[in-house]
Amino acid sequence: GATRAVAAVDLGATSGRVMIGRVGDGILELESVARFPNGPVAGPDGLHWDFSALYGHIVEGLREAFRREPGITSIGIDSWAVDYGLVSGGRLVAEPFHYRDERTADGVERVHARVPFAELYRRNGLQFLPFNTVYQFAVEEGVDDADAALLIPDLVAFLLTGRRVAERTNASTTGLVRVDTGEWDLDLLDRLGLPASVLPGLIDPGEVVGTVQGDLADALGATTPVIAVGSHDTASAVVAVPMTDAATAAYISCGTWGLVGVELDAPLVTDAAREAGFTNEGGVDGRIRFLQNVAGLWLLSESIRAWEADDGAAIDLPSLLDAAAAVTGEVALFDANDPRLSAPGDMPERIAAVLAETGAAVPRDRAALTRSIVESIAAAFADAVRTAGELTGRALEVVHIVGGGSLNRLLCQATADRTGLPVLAGPVEATALGNVLVQARAHGWCGPDATLEDLRARVAESVPLERYAPRGDAR
Ligand code: LFR
């Protein structure tokens, strides 16, 4: 059959991109059209996203995509989770807050005072993360006056189409969706005094959100639909993990965060899962992403940002990682999930302070600190893989690493060594591929009734994977 095309908008916490995805018989390809930086912006009232700039880049990227490939059939949008914009009178009221903003600490207290965490977990299945939307809403001034609160991908879709929806995989990260039914938890909203009226109707990946409106309709085509994908970036990434047997595979979607876990058919909301800090996020096709948020490349990218500011010059990541790989001798480890490392700024100093507390020798130079960061991330990954296996009773045989982290050879090898399992690395653009594949399937391009397994087989056929064998002596 012919090769068909869609556009994928994929927004990560450190960069965004617009891509053309081409799908045909034995063909699954991405063409990068636009890439733009992203990150927290400090304002007088806290950390925000520069959403207006992001939206400008998205529109420009989409225009360019349609110039290059006028046959694009639809647009899919995914981004990081939990954050939202308030909309009133059809307009975005203010730049959305960044989830790393510290205001949520008060929200945690307020919510848990009314609904204890153990009950919250039974209802929403989510690992405790202080930035989950439910805690943000609890300290959000404008939420009562707004017409709608739209999660970031839903906000982009609203600006493109005028339609207000809440895509279900991303909605599952708010803490306001019931893990057992997948519907808004109206009783919880009521008990927290939060207005259900700002939450749009839920839709599933594969459904049409609406068609492109306004000025853009000329450039992008007046009938071009926005199709809901797994709009939580991690949900799209998990679609494109080339697992051949989901029952024996763990995955790590590694970018800013490392999302480490397994796929389940039904939620696992036990005391043990709660105490271990495991989440049950909604996946595409009703699957459950049973995983743990582990601090990922954030620790490294924030360190590099500090060093680049000191030097007034860019740092070459491959050279830094080579130097880190060459470091010999004892490597001090720290808890990658230490909450003191979650805000932006001064990362090398803060890591040094955390290390000093453990009595470990603080690495002398950048190469040694980089090594310590990578090994500490790998150690946290290995912990999470082991715990996922224990909690689910699964005998895990392989660890897939997808996303930007799959290019980090030091991290992949360290993860193999510390889990004692082979690591299969790739694809690096899993999120965009998952976005593209869910659109392609909605158009009927993947055959009738294509399952996630069919989509994953397509990824496995079209992307070369790198295999890292565990080195027994390094465990
Ligand atoms: C990864 C991710 C994680 C989510 C975090 C914050 O990009 O979406 O899944 O916990 O960002 O939204």
UniProtKB/TrEMBL annotation:
<keyword id="KW-0684">Rhamnose metabolism</keyword>
<dbReference type="InterPro" id="IPR043129">
    <property type="entry name" value="ATPase_NBD"/>
</dbReference>
<dbReference type="Pfam" id="PF02782">
    <property type="entry name" value="FGGY_C"/>
</dbReference>
<keyword id="KW-1015">Disulfide bond</keyword>
<dbReference type="InterPro" id="IPR013449">
    <property type="entry name" value="Rhamnulokinase"/>
</dbReference>
<dbReference type="GO" id="GO:0005524">
    <property type="term" value="F:ATP binding"/>
</dbReference>
<dbReference type="GO" id="GO:0019301">
    <property type="term" value="P:rhamnose catabolic process"/>
</dbReference>
<protein>
    <submittedName>
        <fullName>Carbohydrate kinase</fullName>
    </submittedName>
</protein>
<dbReference type="GO" id="GO:0005829">
    <property type="term" value="C:cytosol"/>
</dbReference>
<dbReference type="InterPro" id="IPR018485">
    <property type="entry name" value="FGGY_C"/>
</dbReference>
<dbReference type="Pfam" id="PF00370">
    <property type="entry name" value="FGGY_N"/>
</dbReference>
<dbReference type="GO" id="GO:0008993">
    <property type="term" value="F:rhamnulokinase activity"/>
</dbReference>
<dbReference type="GO" id="GO:0006071">
    <property type="term" value="P:glycerol metabolic process"/>
</dbReference>
<comment type="similarity">
    <text>Belongs to the FGGY kinase family.</text>
</comment>
<dbReference type="InterPro" id="IPR018484">
    <property type="entry name" value="FGGY_N"/>
</dbReference>
<keyword id="KW-0808">Transferase</keyword>
<keyword id="KW-0547">Nucleotide-binding</keyword>
<keyword id="KW-0067">ATP-binding</keyword>
<feature type="domain" description="Carbohydrate kinase FGGY C-terminal">
    <location>
        <begin position="250"/>
        <end position="442"/>
    </location>
</feature>
<dbReference type="GO" id="GO:0004370">
    <property type="term" value="F:glycerol kinase activity"/>
</dbReference>
<keyword id="KW-0418">Kinase</keyword>
<feature type="domain" description="Carbohydrate kinase FGGY N-terminal">
    <location>
        <begin position="9"/>
        <end position="239"/>
    </location>
</feature>
